[in-house]
Amino acid sequence: MDHPPSDFASQLCFSHSVEFVKLASEEADIVNLGQGFPDFSPPEFAVEAFQHAVSGDFMLNQYTKAFGYPPLTKILASFFGKLLGQEIDPLKNVLVTVGAYGALFTAFQALVDEGDEVIIIEPFFDCYEPMTLMAGGRPVFVPLKPSPTQKGEPDSSSNWQLDPTELASKFTSRTKAFILNTPNNPLGKVFSREELELVASLCQQHDVVCITDEVYQWLVFDGFQHISIASLPGMWERTLTIGSAGKTFSVTGWKVGWVLGPDRLMKHLRTVHQNSIYHCPTQGQAAVAQSFEREQLHFGQPSSYFVQLPQYIQRCRDHMIQSLQSVGLRPVIPQGSYFLITDISDFKNKMPDLPGAADEPYDKRFVKWMIKNKGLVAIPVSIFFSVPHQKFFDHYIRFCFVKDESTLRAMDQKLQKWKAELTP
Amino acid sequence: MPRSTAKLVFFYLSFWAFLKMSLKFKNAKRIEGLDSNVWIEFTKLAADPSVVNLGQGLPDISPPVYVKEELSKIAAIDNLNQYTRGFGHPSLVKALSCLYEKFYQNQINPNEEILVTVGAYGSLFNAIQGLIDEGDEVIVIVPFYDCYEPMVRMAGATPVFVPLRCKPVDGKKCSSSDWTLDPQELASKFNSKTKAIILNTPHNPLGKVYTKEELQVIADLCIKYDTLCISDEVYEWLVYTGNKHFKIATFPGMWERTITIGSAGKTFSVTGWKLGWSIGPKHLIKHLQTVQQNTVYTCATPLQEALAQALWIDIKRMDDPECYFNSLPKELEVKRDRMVHLLESVGLKPIVPDGGYFIIADVSLLDVDLFDMKDSNEPYDYKFVKWMIKNKKLSAIPVSAFCNAETKLQFEKFVRFCFIKELVDKDFKADIINVKIWS
């Protein structure tokens, strides 16, 4: 008796980051800088909001409206309406989903058909490719490429750019959607207005839907500005903007996300939603609504979490950068997001033959060796590239710096021990 | 080119560009025709606060105190605010494994044979997406919980319908056990293309609890045709006196081909937690896990931990009348009986359910004058419910919503009422549901 999986399930290989997270959990005494979640507390007001949601009105234990708990869709509409400069209707232009992950899935299933092309910028959050494939679409990759840096100067995510001619060449009559992720995971790039205008003009020229993953929109450093492409002229009507309560309020375990967009696109997402999970849990939504209401009152002020969090995280980032540099690792300074990537070329030159499968990219072997021998967990960056391009980017690993002070100090200890082992 | 011609050309090009643009923003084919939904329509109509809503299967009674307390306690625990294991929070899958091992002959591996999903709805979706392919046939028993048909179609498969048929016994009160499948008719639906059959016991909307013999007929066919069984058992604890819930996965030859779906929402009266689970053999569950990894990745952490704690409390006292798995069906049986009495007293003919949250009633005997809806080509029960909402301030769900196009007429005299409601306990002579309003 053979019960093969559906075609979709058979095409989708086991997630790579899941593999490394599992590996990390099997080793004792390690510092986990791999998966992207904070290990510090969420802000008090968010915790209180959740406590309020679970101990107040007992009817919050029951189903709410399928497309979003009304106070949440209302506050998302008003909050983001202001940011995007757009009149947003809570019923027509907002859909609440199970995390931004669920929002991405819903968007792909709603719009991508067999044979449709989907342009994905490399490096990419690893679910974009399998989600495109699951919808029968064909991923078309376009790389961010680093320009050479001055000797001694650290590389920065702003240095990694799209080639405009190459980008334009990827659009065909079969292009259905363009996936944008800004700030970008894993690189930390924050796309500039000029870069977004280029993408916008191509999307308009070729009549393409832009799906923009903006989960890290508040995690922007060094005075850079996050710009939502939906706010650019001509883009609201063709853009789906995805956000995450998990990354916004440091509560990744609540799994509340959303999509904002024009009704003519949103109605298709609603159809997928009502035929896949139908409702999202009520209390998490109530807590997110209350948290946004609090932020709306403090917006732009020093007391705003959206001001304090990036300030705190920037210090974490800077701490990590210094520590990594001290052992000869070369971090690429991210303009935003939870992550930075680090060049391990020097290690690749000094110890090219690390244990691993014959065709296993170097960075994967390096990470496994590092977990086992140095007690540090990171994620190999080649998994964020399409298979044919992995060999060109097998000399980077990704670290998450959204960590508590104690975690960063534990990282320092591991790195110092490592440094001591390097000096003869 | 003269200006008028230029204008014409411009107009033509713009129109063509607009047409092309509208085509590109169309929905993907997989959801073609799946946009309407009976709940969206009727929930809107019933949203008027003056309307008594006996439509949606949503308890308005409080969940048990200890369930609420567990969630409250967990809300204060820091690390439960971050991601947990994608296929199910460890303490939850362990609790589920412990609970269900009591019903299955073998131990259940919490990591490989259990998947936690976004409600039972999410389990249905993962199972269908993970196992059903384009061109497959899936047998759906009519009436059916309305999402089965669109989910099967979304996977590119063809639903094959087989109706439950009523064989009432004279003199005996009409009950959900009178509705059965004709074994020959059921057998005729199976063929080499049949990938799965979807079973729902206790059944929504009828409240039927399949007997051992009835399940054996289904099991025999599944084995004969090497078919999967997706068994939706969300109401598994809500079985009334004289009836017993059987798990088809425990029948010989069935474990290896069955996905059994459960629901925290229906188990603990917490539908808003949206947690469900699939239990089955590793070689099937792994495909549901693949779908999970590419859809939601993980479910909410604090709710899963709270559910685990609540389960442990009741697992430890399965024989105790205080255990919610025992106390809730007792509480609901009383409500069911009151509801049966109430519906009879206003001239409706209820079908007494053996399990579940719902009761269906034949409304045709009232012969209500639906004159202002005679032009609508909706089934009778749709018209009746809309009339009832408008004129009697009472909402329910038309049973033909649980039927495919071809069988709607067979069930259009029936309307579904939900009785897990506070007001069912109130004195019938009170104002809300009053015999007088029907005269």
TrEMBL record, chain A:
Keywords: Aminotransferase, Cytoplasm, Lyase, Pyridoxal phosphate, Transferase
Positions of the Aminotransferase class I/classII large domain: 29-409
Keyword Lyase: yes
Pathway: Amino-acid degradation; L-kynurenine degradation; kynurenate from L-kynurenine: step 1/2
GO CC terms in record: cytosol; mitochondrion
GO molecular function, one term: kynurenine-oxoglutarate transaminase activity
Catalytic activity: an S-substituted L-cysteine + H2O = a thiol + pyruvate + NH4(+); 3-phenylpyruvate + L-glutamine = 2-oxoglutaramate + L-phenylalanine; L-kynurenine + 2-oxoglutarate = kynurenate + L-glutamate + H2O
Entry keyword Transferase: yes
Gene3D superfamilies, per database record: Aspartate Aminotransferase, domain 1, Type I PLP-dependent aspartate aminotransferase-like (Major domain)
Cofactors required: pyridoxal 5'-phosphate
Signal peptide: none
Localization terms from the record: Cytoplasm, Cytosol
Similarity section: Belongs to the class-I pyridoxal-phosphate-dependent aminotransferase family.
PANTHER family (UniProt xref): FI04487P (PTHR43807), KYNURENINE--OXOGLUTARATE TRANSAMINASE 1 (PTHR43807:SF14)
Oligomer and partners: Homodimer.
Protein name (database record): Kynurenine--oxoglutarate transaminase 1
Source organism (scientific name): Muntiacus muntjak (Barking deer)
UniProtKB/TrEMBL annotation, chain B:
Quaternary structure (record): Homodimer.
A biological process from GO: L-kynurenine catabolic process
Protein's recorded name: Kynurenine--oxoglutarate transaminase 3
UniProt GO MF annotations: cysteine-S-conjugate beta-lyase activity; kynurenine-glyoxylate transaminase activity; kynurenine-oxoglutarate transaminase activity; pyridoxal phosphate binding
Summary of the function given for this chain in its UniProt record: Catalyzes the irreversible transamination of the L-tryptophan metabolite L-kynurenine to form kynurenic acid (KA), an intermediate in the tryptophan catabolic pathway which is also a broad spectrum antagonist of the three ionotropic excitatory amino acid receptors among others. May catalyze the beta-elimination of S-conjugates and Se-conjugates of L-(seleno)cysteine, resulting in the cleavage of the C-S or C-Se bond.
Entry's family note: Belongs to the class-I pyridoxal-phosphate-dependent aminotransferase family.
Natural source organism: Muntiacus muntjak (Barking deer)
Gene3D superfamilies from the UniProt entry: Aspartate Aminotransferase, domain 1, Type I PLP-dependent aspartate aminotransferase-like (Major domain)
Cofactor annotation: pyridoxal 5'-phosphate
Enzyme Commission number(s) from the entry: 2.6.1.63, 2.6.1.7, 4.4.1.13
